[in-house]
Amino acid sequence: MDPLSVASEIADHLCRECHTHRDQCTWLGTIQQGAPGTGALRFSYETVGPTLYAGTAGIALFLAEVSVRTRDRRQARIAGAAIRHAMSHADEVPHDTRYGFYSGKIGIAHTAARLACLLGRADLLSEARRLLNQVKRSRRSGAMLDVIAGAAGAIAPLLQLARVLDDQELGRLAHHLGLAIMRRAQKRSYGWSWGSDATGFATGKNLTGFAHGAAGFGWSLFELYHQTRDRRFLGAARNAFRYENHWFRKDEDNWPDFRDLGVQSSTQVPCRMAWCHGAPGIGLSRLAALSIRPSQRYRTDVEASLRSTIRAIEMTDPKSENDSSPCHGSAGLAEFAIMASEGFSDHRALDLTLELAASRAERYAGATAKWPCGVVRGTNPSLMLGHAGIGYFYLRLYDRLVPSILLPASAMSRVTAAAVPAPSETRQPTSEG
Q1: Contacts of 87 (CB under 8 A, 6+ apart)
Q2: What is the dihedral of CA 366, 369, 371, 373, to 10 degrees?
Q3: Which contiguous run of DSSP H or E holds residue 169?
Q4: Which contiguous run of DSSP H or E holds residue 433?
Q5: Quick count: other Cβ atoms within 10 Å of Cβ 310?
Q6: How far apart are CA 361 and CA 133, in angstroms?
Q7: What is the distance between the alpha carbons of residues 303 and 140, in angstroms, rounded to a whole number?
Q8: Nearest 5°: CA angle at 389, between 293 and 106?
Q9: 332-351, pLDDT tens digit by residue?
Q10: Which of the four pLDDT bands, split at 50, 70 and 90, describes residue 317?
Q11: How many H helices and E strands in the chain?
Q12: pLDDT tens digit sequence for 257-270
């Protein structure tokens, strides 16, 4: 398997499938949404929006990153047209997700700044500044706080943009968002967590996990501590992980997904295996924490996450039609397994992951449209749910200098694996984690 060839084949497919108008382009795809109060899924086939998670900004990022390595002018040109679409439609982002990296304006601006560097486009840097200035001037109340939709996902990218653009106001905005996260935490003796006002999920217990739960909040606060050395953020980050480890299930090496717990329900809920919810994403949050503040407790969490992720990879049939996307598919599992194996020298995890990646690549060679995506029906072109994200995973296999989209702008990318402490003993995660 040549990972660059896989990524380039997917990029070429996206270039063929795009719809252009003047100097912009977009894509059609299956959009999947949950019906309120029923749990049923509703499907539509429509043009994607402007965001990094599910829209043209994310597709532009993949196409630009791959074009630099293939030197394919068409891929670069379509990337430019896609980010122009995202910038021109940024005002469609809902007000409560404006701070989002994945679902908001900050993610679109961050992508434009990245493309300015990759493609040598000074105009995109100016556009990124314009959009960020708009965000800085917006009212600071009424915003979501989790990784997908709000402040927790934006903090590390804002800190990176503050350095790249030499804009101290962006650093101050990140600091403000960190304080907002702390203020809205629900503080218990066993840790801190965030409720429906911060995440949009009304459940019997506040969520664990990276995308909407304590792992993502803790990660963002660790990143802010790393930049500011303000120990208030360190304490809050530790408390987020304490909450999560209070619910750890030793028998599964995993943490429960409380989205399945009704507001009045007391039944035990399942654990999930995905970047968004479950051990892979939680493991990534602890890997990042280890790179900032080495701790045996967080190493133990990573080891537990890696054990359950390896079992999930072993059980994955390479001939199946299982979701291959980063958010809740096999690319998310594989990304964590590779990053953990690099830090812990776990060759078995790496070998299993590469074997699965090679099998999937062989199965869908020459049939890019058939890659299974993060929607139950049809296909999707996006970064986190579809073809662009699958291609991005293979591009990361080819070149680890390609920035992670699952741990964006993390301090972990600026340190070596030597920062991960050697184990002194084998323990299960505890509530002190």
Answers
A1: 50, 108, 112, 127, 131
A2: 170
A3: helix 168-183
A4: none
A5: 20
A6: 42
A7: 39
A8: 60
A9: 999 999 999 988 877 888 99
A10: confident
A11: 15, 6
A12: 998 776 555 567 89
Q: What are phi and psi of 20, to 5 degrees?
A: -105, 150
How confident is the model over 209-218, as a mean pLDDT? Answer: 98
Give per-residue pLDDT as tens, 86-138: 999 999 999 999 999 999 999 999 999 999 999 999 999 999 999 999 999 98
What single-letter amino acid sits at 361? A
Cβ neighbour number for residue 186 with a 10 Å cutoff: 13
Q: Is 156 exposed, middle or buried (0-12, 13-18, 19+ CB in 10 A)?
A: buried
pTM: 0.93
**What token pair was written down for 253?**
């090496």
For residue range 392-426, list pLDDT tens digits in order.
999 999 999 999 999 999 987 754 333 333 333 33
Closest CA to 164 of 331, 232, 156, 281: 156
Nearest-5° Cα angle at 377, 376 to 378: 130
**Alpha helices, H only, 28-167:** 56-70, 73-88, 105-119, 122-137, 151-164
> Nearest 5°: phi and psi at 239?
-65, -35
CA distance 284 to 334: 11
Report yes or no: 130 and 108 within 8 Å, Cβ to Cβ.
no
How far is Cα 417 from Cα 288, in angstroms, rounded to an integer? 11
Judge whether 27 and 48 are in contact, CB under 8 Å.
yes
Cα 263 from Cα 351, distance rounded (Å): 42
Q: What is the dihedral of CA 98, 101, 107, 109, to 10 degrees?
A: 60
